[in-house]
Amino acid sequence: MMFKQESLAWHCSYQIGGVTHFFTAPNTYDEVIAVLQQCKAKGLHYFIFGLGSNVLFPDDLRNDQAFISLKKLAYWKNRTTNWFVSSGVPMSMLAIAGLLYNITDFELTYLLPGSLGAGIYMNAKYNQFQISDIIDRVYYIDLDRDNLFIQSISVSQCQFGYKKSIFQNHNWLILGADMKVIPSGDKDNELQMVLRRWLNLQDQSNLWTFYEFFAQELHLLAEKGIIIPDTLKSIERYRNSKSHFKYPSSGSIFKNNYDFGTPIGALVDQLNLKGLTHGGAMISPHHGNIIINMNRASAHDVEYLMQVIMNEIYKNFGFVPELEVVQT
Ligand SMILES: Cc1cc2nc3c(=O)[nH]c(=O)nc-3n(C[C@H](O)[C@H](O)[C@H](O)COP(=O)(O)OP(=O)(O)OC[C@H]3O[C@@H](n4cnc5c(N)ncnc54)[C@H](O)[C@@H]3O)c2cc1C
């Protein structure tokens, strides 16, 4: 598996990031191991990520850092007793599986950007539902060990909380997870076909491509007579009303501070900061906790607005909001 020169802007939903000489997207476990060994041999630091929907890559990159996207490590094993889903599978595929197999627990993932591996890392959520509700066991590699091998951990040991997991405190690469549900019926061919169509897309990290793909898959299932639940329709309405897919962004910039009580977006609104621009970036007029890339924004433009929000919230409400977006 070779590294190649690539603009990171192509591999994240922000469409921001400089050019690296060391980008790769392995699609098998053996390739992942080979890439990690190459990094070691070349003395490269590395950043492991998925679809890049929660990262802000820098404009200028160090030349000793590799970027390893697991978005092509996407397969779904239909075992007789459970499902294993690998980390590169987009979370929204679970919603499609939910429709095919009539599993309502997977609805939270519909149009939730990003891959399952990162969803586990972040404990991604929609309303009160979280990824930790639907998985049973996580498989990972401890990258700090000399010999790299697969280990597993049960969901109860993963220290899941609001946007928190044990994986944020360790140098562990998540390979995938067993799902909690025990599937009945056989729709595996249909599921695998959707996954293949997804893998054939060129620009999977682009939010509009992501949205169109899953909205279209839903439409195709409806045409085949599958009833689309109201929950999925309301998720689509909600995300469109907040313009989630219209402009490049990373979704929420800050985690909500539940000790304070009011969501960060509402505080930004109270401070009249919505619509504020800097360079090509803007605090979304539709959601105060999202900074959008309006027009060829740089990472610096986004960082400037992040700092404005942090300063103003500290001045007016007495705390500094915690970043949700990951910077490398
Ligand atoms: C428009 C929009 C709306 C969003 N709405 C929501 C929402 O409603 N709820 C929510 O929770 N989030 C939301 N997000 C954020 C995003 O969907 C989640 O954080 C998602 O988990 C990111 O997945 P990803 O594959 O893109 O992760 P990336 O951005 O690629 O990576 C995020 C982090 O996970 C780590 N990581 C990724 N894969 C692995 C792995 N296999 N092993 C170890 N570490 C890994 C990376 O190192 C990085 O620190 C939204 C984002 C956007 C752009």
The gist of it:
This protein is an alpha+beta fold and 328 residues long. The chain has 8 helices and 16 strands.
Bound small molecules, which ones?
flavin-adenine dinucleotide
**Total of domains:** 3
Order of helices and strands: EEHEEEEEHHEEEEEHHHHEEEHE
Largest sheet: 5 strands, antiparallel
User: What's the total number of strands?
Assistant: 16
Look up the CATH topology of the largest domain: Uridine Diphospho-n-acetylenolpyruvylglucosamine Reductase, domain 3
Quick one: overall form? Answer: globular
Q: Can you give a write-up of this model?
A:
The protein is α+β, with helices and mostly antiparallel strands and 328 residues long. The protein has three domains: 4-69, Uridine Diphospho-n-acetylenolpyruvylglucosamine Reductase, domain 2 (2-Layer Sandwich); 76-241, 2-Layer Sandwich (Uridine Diphospho-n-acetylenolpyruvylglucosamine Reductase, domain 3); 264-327, Alpha-Beta Complex (Uridine Diphospho-n-acetylenolpyruvylglucosamine Reductase, domain 1), CATH 3.90.78. It contains eight helices and 16 strands. The strands form five sheets. The protein has a five-stranded antiparallel β-sheet. Strands 1-2-5-3 form a four-stranded mixed β-sheet, covered by helices on one side. It has a three-stranded antiparallel β-sheet with strand order 13-14-15. Helix 2 (92-101) runs parallel beside helix 5. The protein is globular. The model has no long low-confidence stretch (mean pLDDT 96). Flavin-adenine dinucleotide binds next to strand 3, helix 3, strand 8 and strand 12. Flavin-adenine dinucleotide is lined by residues 13, 48-55, 70, 87, 112-115, 117-119, 121-122, 124-126, 167, 173-174, 207, 244, 249-251, 326.
